Input
Amino acid sequence: MSEQPVLKFPDGEGWKDGLAVSLERLRPIIETHIDKQMVAKLSRGALAQQIRMIVSKNAPGVGLDLNLLQERDLVTTLVTALAGPAPEAQRQPVQAPPPRPNGNAAVPQNGTPTAPPAAGVTSLEQSHGANAADDQLDDPAANISAASMTSVREAADAIRPLMMERIDAAAAASLPRDELMSQISGLVGELLLENKIRLNQIEQRSLVTALVNDMMGLGPLEPLLGDTDITEVMVNGPNQIYVERSGKLELTDVTFRDHSHLMNICTRIVSWIGRRVDESSPMCDARLKDGSRVNIIIPPLAIDGASISIRKFAEKKITLEKMVDFGSMSPQMMKLLQIASRCKLNILISGGTGSGKTTLLNALSRMIDGGERVVTIEDAAELQLQQPHVVRLETRPANLEGQGEVTIRDLVKNSLRMRPDRIILGECRGAEAIDMLQAMNTGHEGSMSTVHANNPREALTRLENMISMAGFNLPAKAMRMQVASAIDLICQVSRMRDGGRRITHVAEVVGVEGDIITMQDLYLYKYKGEDSGGKLVGNYESTGLRPKFMEKASYFGLDKALLEVM
Output
């Protein structure tokens, strides 16, 4: 194609002639990329996106110098030429509203926040402007440079107050995210032009995404939550945010605007599930809409600003087979745990913070028969059981008057009246320990829980301490008899220095001799060294001891399989 002279067209009436020239030069290129079948298959928004990308890429090559509004006019005209005019129902919601006395756009009678469209801009361009799903090209911030991010932040600071003057925030909060992105995009484009702020298309998409995240999502945390490589997000005040990748902590360059911005996000998180965080209640456990677990603690308890800890929800379900692939256990150990779960052993999972206790609990729960009634009890619901008959219970904090609190212990007691086959307690850390042990001892076989401890012996000691803290003055021997008769198997999980999570012990509770609970290790992880990449190398070794639950395995027809893995 021969190079053509660069044409820069004026706005207003002069653009009409430029539009005809632009159509003449670009339409043949568009038609070589988009055929009739594609036009019939794509929605108007998706078609507009495709055309916009082609226009942006090819306009300079055919001698066209278009500003943002001219490009939008051209895209709309091309969409209409290829797909016909937009249906009336599609155009109606974004008719230009009457201007306010101060020149800002008003909100239409239906409450939808809009900006006055520029000359020639129809509803199609507004819906096309920055569709959340289509126009982000996955995550616009993922491929943006540090300098561009600085430009986006500066533009956001300048545009945000102007944008809030022109929209109805209450109506905006009621809109679906995609529709709000569409509405905000057109307004942002006009505000950038009015304020002579120059951003490229990727930066504009990042700006719109950031503004909508502030309005509807978790602000600067949204890109981190969308990164599948990140497993935890830790906010230490407005200017320090760490993430965990592959078991290692990394400091990010993401920040909040100020303490007030961070507190707004904290309030938004807890309000989604009907909880609160303020000076009278400065600590809160919550969960995000996707199931991610959140802990929030604010000033005056958090001295340097509000602290948020987010354990991300794993979209891909972790199974025992995948844990073998990750190196968290051996195939023989996996078979042992599968047999233990199917034999309805009461299993306690022990480990430190972030060691993978809940992940292992989820994986073990997959072995539960679909015909059993399972009751789960948690502070903040994060278990992902796949069985059809699951009742999920969650605690509730006290209200402003200090009344209405429902504790884990209350839920454990209530669950016994619900005819459960198994009870799964997300974490045992207080007086509920005695109720959980009693449930395990009264016919609810196959129940499971987790506890914070460094090894299997300490896990049992922790249970004894919890019973004592609850105010039960039981003799030590009676207490240990209660623990030993309730717990069958202890799985110790550990996060090691290479970031990997591994099951280091599978220990069986045998009984009580004198005042001591006797145990035997069935499998152990033996550390050997590390490879050239810094990953730890070791073996999962069977101790060769005959499990005490062999008789129970025989009852379920699994004794031969158990002998093979030992």
